[in-house]
Design a protein that fits this description.
The chain is an alpha+beta fold. Helix content is 44%, strand content 16%. Helix 2 (30-40) packs across helix 7 (129-153) and helix 5 packs antiparallel against helix 6 (110-124). It binds flavin mononucleotide.
């Protein structure tokens, strides 16, 4: 059974905190994780090409395997799952598929589709790796944030993790070579609330119209 989805956006945003202590007895079902992932993928992406890819690690033995790679962070073991978010460096290969689906849904004409596919092929394919990486990291960050909010709206907690050995992770989990690590996200039910954090005042980080 899926939990009730909280509708109040402000509550969801304000109640999201990075949680590092999880109730190990709580298992989020595959169906519910898929709902959360599907909501996450409503995030925007460059040309709607959705370069994000996921590996859901909810098998306890595999979490044990990940634990030392993630520098023994305890949430890896106790959270219901750890979701690895990747950016596919060959994301533009799905342009034809995505824009064909848009035509079939009636959202775009065949002519516009051809233009979009051509742009994807000419633009993205020939970019240097640094620009490609920048694109998949931006889109990967957006989908990750949306995933964490979708989880909170269901009463679950998360912590994004950059603290892991990326090379070891790719090797141990046989991650395709063209997948760029974005982050790991532990997801589960908090055993202890996340610690409060502060934010810089807006006046210090925001300029209006000119610096
Ligand atoms: C890209 C990224 C990597 C992070 N890596 C870790 C990590 O490896 N371990 C951890 O406990 N927290 C990690 N965090 C969580 C941050 O410490 C946390 O978001 C920050 O302190 C603000 O707290 P809040 O998320 O509760 O608002 C990471 C956050 C981000 C965005």
């Amino acid at each position: 059974m899926t939990t009730q989805v909280v509708q109040d956006f402000h509550q969801v945003v304000k109640e999201r905190h990075s949680v590092r202590y999880y109730d190990p007895t709580v298992k989020i079902s595959k169906a519910e994780l898929e709902e959360i992932l599907a909501e996450a993928t409503l995030a925007p992406s460059s040309s709607n090409l959705q370069p994000w890819r996921f590996l859901v690690i909810d098998d306890q033995e595999l979490k044990q395997k990940l634990h030392p790679i993630a520098y023994n962070q305890k949430q890896v073991l106790d959270a219901s799952a750890v979701i690895a978010v990747f950016g596919d460096m060959e994301w533009f290969e799905k342009a034809e598929q995505i824009y064909t689906a848009s035509v079939e849904a009636g959202y775009m004409t065949e002519e516009v589709k051809q233009q979009f596919v051509a742009t994807a092929n000419n633009g993205y394919r020939n970019m240097d790796d640094a620009r490609k990486k920048s694109i998949v990291h931006i889109d990967g960050g957006l989908v990750s944030m949306q995933l964490m909010l979708a989880a909170r709206a269901r009463g679950y907690d998360t912590v994004p993790m950059g603290g892991f050995d990326g090379a070891k992770f790719k090797e141990a989990f046989e991650v395709p070579a063209h997948y760029e690590n974005i982050m790991l996200i532990a997801i589960g039910k908090a055993a202890q609330p996340g610690r409060p954090t502060v934010r810089l005042p807006l006046s210090e980080i925001t300029s209006w119209n000119a610096f």
